[in-house]
Design goal:
Layout (H helix, E strand, L loop, with lengths): L3 E4 L9 H16 L3 E6 L9 H14 L5 E4 L4 H13 L3 E4 L3 H13 L15 H9 L5 E4 L15 E6 L3 E6 L7 E3 L8 H11 L3 E5 L3 H13 L6 E5 L2 E3 L14 H6 L4 H10 L12 H7 L10 E3 L2 H12 L3 H10 L7 H8 L9 H10 L9 H11 L11 H13 L4 H12 L7 H14 L4
Parallel strand pairs: 1-2, 2-3, 9-10, 11-12
Antiparallel strand pairs: 4-5, 5-8, 6-7
Helix pairs in contact: 1-9, 1-10, 3-6, 6-7, 9-11
């Protein structure tokens, strides 16, 4: 059996790191098993769905390293859903309901005052064809509910009906269909709610594993019943925990918080995002993976915690630094060239500065220092200025290499008697204008004799 998974966001906003978690879980699960990844857009909400958001999502998942086998849009598949509706109606499993939202709300309140669960009582099954015709003549249009299989012969006499599955994350799960209202599948205006198109598509695309957030656990009981009503074997299900901010607050596409696009614009590396999104809330330590192959080797869906996972966005910067500090020149050469960092000095420059970067774009600032000098003259005391002038008189002759700086400092130390911070800090300030940064032993050959003498105070 070929494993087939899907990531199915609604294109109503830009995806955030929590959405990326679901996408990556599916991608890695399929990758480990040589399977296929279907990118499906649940865009039946024509009022809020936008093609620009779908395009942005495709850009975001590509940036993360996800390569869909196919891209599908629910808005192009209405014929499939109409066929499913016709099948359910023919089986007597989809029935029209004429109650208004106000009437339904009143019924819920009445049940609650009687200390009863607010479950729909299937009153819409009682009207005759003549009574329904009268309601339609009054201008009412029905919404359509799926009749849950939670009774023997009388739909008004429900019994406990357990739907059980072995969840890929949570283990044995059970939902009692008698505790649920018959779900609305079609609205009064003929548009579909999430459940019907999702199940119809999963059947049509041959989805073998549905991996999603644990806010869908209860939905799964209903969907398994719907799969069976449509004559299909349900896929395997796995419900992972959700990411929340350190405050416990959930993430939202509408707020734009921690969107993948904003993280990319902020200079965060894709593998920093992927590592945090995947490994947070699992038994694995949250350590930056260098690539998807390494992350796939560490990913275990079953090791995911059952409780929500809080994460600190500041951790992204820690992972980002780790990735940058370990990147070789070949991995970043094109991006550095786009920043104007090219030529014979580019590779030794990268090896010198990478350990001091939070973001790759920070390299541009160091390149400017190396090629043009400090952005502003260092604030030196008269004593340090005199010390530096004497030190610059002792600069070794060319050629320079990685040993030059130590040889120079040994001689300056012997002549001046300075050591430690008093020896090195004035030199660093003169060469870079900054009190900290890359090793001066690595920078000095990049500056060369001419570039170094140009910084003589």
């Amino acid at each position: 059996m070929t494993v087939i998974v899907r990531f199915a966001p609604s294109p109503t906003g830009n995806i955030h790191i929590g959405n990326a978690r679901t996408a990556l879980f599916n991608w890695l699960f399929a990758r480990q098993r040589g399977g296929r990844f279907v990118q499906r857009f649940d865009d039946t909400d024509v009022e809020r769905s936008r093609q620009e958001y779908a395009d942005n999502i495709l850009t975001d998942i590509a940036w993360l390293g996800i390569e869909p086998s196919v891209v599908e849009y629910q808005s192009k598949r209405f014929a499939v859903y109409e066929a499913a509706i016709a099948k359910l109606k023919a089986a007597g499993l989809l029935y029209p309901c004429y109650e208004t939202a106000e009437e339904l709300d009143l019924k819920r309140k009445v049940r609650l005052t009687r200390r009863l669960p607010p479950v729909y009582g299937r009153e819409a099954l009682k009207p005759t064809a003549v009574e329904r015709a009268r309601l339609e003549a009054e201008g009412r249009r029905p919404h359509w509910r799926f009749l849950l299989p939670n009774f023997d012969t009388d739909p008004f006499s429900t019994r406990r009906t357990e739907v059980t599955w072995t969840d890929l994350v949570r283990g044995e799960e059970t939902v009692d269909l008698a505790s649920l209202s018959d779900p609305v599948l079609v609205r009064e205006d003929g548009t579909y709610l999430y459940t019907l198109p999702s199940v119809a598509d999963d059947i049509d695309f041959g989805i073998t594993h549905v991996i999603r957030g644990d806010d869908h656990v209860t939905n799964t009981g209903v969907q398994i019943a719907l799969f069976k009503a449509l004559g299909a074997e349900p896929p395997a299900f796995g419900h992972h925990n959700l990411l929340t901010a350190v405050t416990g607050e959930g993430l939202s596409k509408r707020s734009g918080a921690l969107s993948i696009a904003s993280l990319r614009a902020d200079g965060i590396e894709p593998m920093a995002v992927a590592s945090l999104a995947v490994l947070t809330g699992t038994s694995e330590n949250v350590v930056a993976a260098r690539d998807m192959a390494e992350l796939a080797g560490r990913f275990d869906l079953a090791s995911t915690s059952r409780s929500a996972s809080k994460f600190d966005p500041a951790d992204l910067l820690v992972l980002n630094r780790t990735l940058l500090h370990g990147m070789d020149f070949a991995a970043v050469a094109e991006r550095l060239a786009a920043l104007g960092i090219a030529g014979a000095r580019a590779e030794p420059f990268w090896l010198a500065v990478r350990g001091n970067l939070d973001r790759l774009a920070d390299a541009a600032g160091w390149w400017r220092i190396v090629t043009q000098g400090p952005t502003q003259a260092p604030d030196l005391s008269d004593e340090d200025r005199a010390f530096l002038r004497a030190a610059f008189d002792l600069l070794p002759a060319a050629p320079w290499d990685g040993t030059t700086f130590k040889a120079w400092m040994d001689q300056v130390k012997a002549v001046s008697g300075r050591k430690g911070k008093a020896l090195f800090m004035p030199v660093r300030l003169a060469l870079t204008g900054l009190p900290s940064g890359p090793e001066l032993a690595d920078l000095l050959p990049l500056l060369g004799p001419e570039g170094t003498q140009a910084r003589r105070p």
